[in-house]
Amino acid sequence: MAVDPVCKMNVDEKKPAATSDYKGKRYYFCAPGCKRAFDQNPEKYLGADKK
Q1: Binning pLDDT at 50, 70 and 90, where does residue 51 land?
Q2: Taking the CB of the first residue and of the last residue of the chain, which one, N or C, has fewer CB atoms within 10 A?
Q3: pTM
């Protein structure tokens, strides 16, 4: 299971509502609205995930 970076819900990688590729990584979303929010400002949602 992947975690939606916007709402933190678990998302089945085999049937996500939407996906987005950012900096070489694929992100999975529970709904198109979460994908839109992520696409507008990915760093806002990835700030806590910095390596």
Answers
A1: very low
A2: C
A3: 0.86
